[in-house]
Write a structure and sequence with these properties.
4-stranded antiparallel sheet, 2 helices, 22% helix, alpha+beta, 6 strands, elongated
């Protein structure tokens, strides 16, 4: 099994959710996060004063899928989240050793 973690622009969340739903991936965790990479923030004006916004708002999506679903999941996320501009985000794929559904005790593929 694989855990796919994607950091995307907030306004792309609905597009990514729909793209994952189309390939029958419905379970996910979404977190509002802040960060920066090459974008390095930007300067804004507020009441005539200039200030630097170092951390930009992003969304983190976490999905655990079977090995067979992983590549399609990555393709769905990258296709739906891409704008072609700096700051589109990153996707991280890591291995998952074990998954347990707390309610039923099911494990691994049956728990996902």
């Amino acid at each position: 099994m694989k855990k796919i973690e994607a950091i995307i622009k907030p306004f792309k969340l609905d597009d990514v959710r729909e793209a994952l739903s189309e390939i029958d991936i419905t379970g996910m965790t979404v977190t509002e996060v802040k960060g920066f990479g090459r974008q390095k923030g930007h300067t804004e004006l507020y009441r005539g004063a200039e200030y630097v916004v170092d951390f930009l708002p992003k969304m983190r999506i976490e999905v655990v899928v079977t090995d067979e679903q992983a590549e399609r999941c990555v393709e769905a996320i990258s296709g739906a989240a891409r704008t072609g501009r700096i700051g589109d985000g990153k996707i991280f794929v890591t291995g998952v050793d074990r998954v347990i559904r707390i309610r039923t005790g099911e494990e691994d593929d049956r728990a996902v």
